[in-house]
Amino acid sequence: MPSTTRRRTLQRVATLLAGVGLAGCSGESSSTYPPETTDNVAFDPESHSLRSSDPGPILWSGDRPTTQPGTDDDARRRHWTTRRFVADADDAAAISIADVDGAADARDFLDATDYDAATVYVDQAGIRECFTQDLCHVRWSETEVDTDYARYYRDADVACETDARDVLVTLIRIPEALDPDDVSSYGSSRGSGTCERSNEHLRRRRNRSDDGGAR
User: Fold this and answer.
1) Which residue range forms the structural domain that includes residue 167?
2) What is the per-residue pLDDT for 112?
3) Inside any domain, residue 215
4) Where is this region: Disordered (predicted)?
């Protein structure tokens, strides 16, 4: 059963969410300025997500990294926030995945990628326990990557605490063989609007740009 704290929170925000659009939601929206030269875009790209309430990393290469003794769980989750690429079969084989739901499917996702034509972008970060998110689109160039997510409350029958955090990793298959050493700029946005609304907003912006800014 959901916690009492969450039930009250859901009641408070239900009305607000109906009119919020692409703006932030209860502190759960975050963004950085998106790269301006990302010429390519994939709407609803092929992806796979893994989630864990354990504060340790979900995905890593080599020995599993650790934090200093005495580090609190929230600091550990922040420590595992990372962006990286899987660019070839050797990279994929070197990756270890924590024993979480969907780990076998994530391994299949990595192994099934044609790295001559695609690159897997790994976005690992913390997320509040009562929230989940959908990947709306990814934009990229040879030097920049920008992701957009729609974040919303999990189903009411999912037990959670409003101040607790999980670790969430999203594997995104970018349909181009990128050189990770050339990528130096990243952007990401998360809001309470739907992916349909966010994607339509981007399509309109791109159409206006193609038309030279005409409205």
Assistant:
1) 4-210
2) 97
3) no
4) 24-75, 179-215
